């Protein structure tokens, strides 16, 4: 091996400065071409997968812009030949869609704010306070995640019915003001903070509530963002509970309103798809804006250190 190295050194040493520069340029150009090729392949693969994933949404937008006469033909019409916005206009005329959207925004917004407040307070107690049965109580809270919502929906309905809360904003909001998922998410994030942070704040005369508001919450923006995006989308897409507890158009939400666009007339499919396209815009927009916070918040408490 040493003999081969001794033979190679003089070969390189005999090359002129111009030849070395040309060799370096050729190597750099080859490396750059490899990087560009890998980047182009990555971008191409991402575009292909993105189109495949978004294909149902793109086709829904195409149907929403089609007249009914173009959809129900023997031809495969993927794109509208005569695009029209009449389906969107008729959707607002058929049902009070703006009222449904407002109700969903109020419901989803209040549930999101409520869960952030209650879950952060509960997670603080499970993370920093010491009391008897804390571990058992936390296990009970986590165990509720295994109970499907359908198993408790009848008992919840009988409870709110007895309280006279049917067909109100309270019945849409109050049962979902906290969640075991949110408590777990905040607790895992709080566990990354040293207990000395809380002890130092107590020595300085900081109350528990002031510690949460002034110290914990500013340090947990990623967890709050993840919780807000996750909770808002779930509340916005809620269907069974609003259908069960509301009976008037003044209190119905968008998910129920979309089902009202459907009828025995097959021509209403384009109308219903137009409504679907409109109501998924807020949830998609919130997901796009908060996707980084969602990913960062979901993984922030996974590794402690």
UniProtKB/TrEMBL annotation:
Keyword Transmembrane helix recorded: yes
GO CC annotation, single: plasma membrane
Keyword entries, A-Z: Cell membrane, Membrane, Transmembrane, Transmembrane helix, Transport
Location of this chain's protein in the cell: Cell membrane
Leader sequence segment: none
Membrane topology field: Multi-pass membrane protein
GO BP terms in the entry: transmembrane transport
Domain ABC transmembrane type-1: 101-290
The family this protein is said to belong to: Belongs to the binding-protein-dependent transport system permease family.
Official protein name in the record: L-arabinose transport system permease protein AraQ
Organism of derivation: Blautia luti
Gene (UniProt): araQ_5
């Amino acid at each position: 091996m040493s003999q081969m190295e001794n033979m190679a050194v003089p070969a390189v040493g005999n090359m002129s400065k111009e030849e070395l520069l040309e060799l370096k340029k050729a190597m750099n150009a080859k490396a750059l071409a490899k990087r560009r090729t890998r980047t182009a392949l990555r971008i191409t693969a991402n575009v292909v997968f993105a189109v495949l994933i978004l294909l149902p949404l793109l086709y829904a937008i195409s149907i929403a812009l089609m007249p009914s006469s173009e959809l129900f033909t023997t031809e495969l019409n993927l794109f509208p030949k005569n695009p029209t916005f009449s389906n969107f206009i008729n959707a607002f005329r058929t049902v009070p869609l703006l009222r449904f959207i407002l109700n969903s925004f109020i419901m989803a917004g209040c549930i999101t704010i409520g869960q952030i407040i209650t879950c952060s307070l509960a997670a603080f107690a499970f993370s920093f306070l010491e009391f008897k049965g804390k571990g058992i109580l936390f296990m009970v809270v986590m165990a509720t995640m295994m109970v499907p919502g359908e198993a408790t929906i009848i008992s919840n309905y009988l409870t709110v019915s007895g309280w006279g809360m049917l067909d109100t904003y309270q019945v849409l909001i109050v049962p979902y003001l906290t969640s075991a998922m949110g408590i777990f998410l905040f607790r895992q994030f709080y566990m990354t903070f040293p207990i000395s942070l809380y002890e130092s704040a107590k020595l300085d005369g900081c109350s528990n509530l002031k510690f949460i508001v002034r110290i914990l919450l500013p340090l947990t923006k990623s967890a709050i963002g993840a919780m807000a995006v996750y909770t808002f989308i779930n509340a916005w897409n809620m269907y069974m509970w609003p259908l069960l507890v509301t009976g008037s158009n003044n209190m119905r939400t968008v998910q129920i309103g979309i089902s009202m666009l459907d009828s025995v007339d097959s021509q209403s499919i384009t109308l219903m798809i137009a409504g679907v396209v409109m109501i998924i815009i807020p949830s998609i927009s919130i997901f796009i804006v908060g996707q980084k916070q969602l990913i960062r918040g979901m993984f922030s408490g996974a590794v402690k250190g």
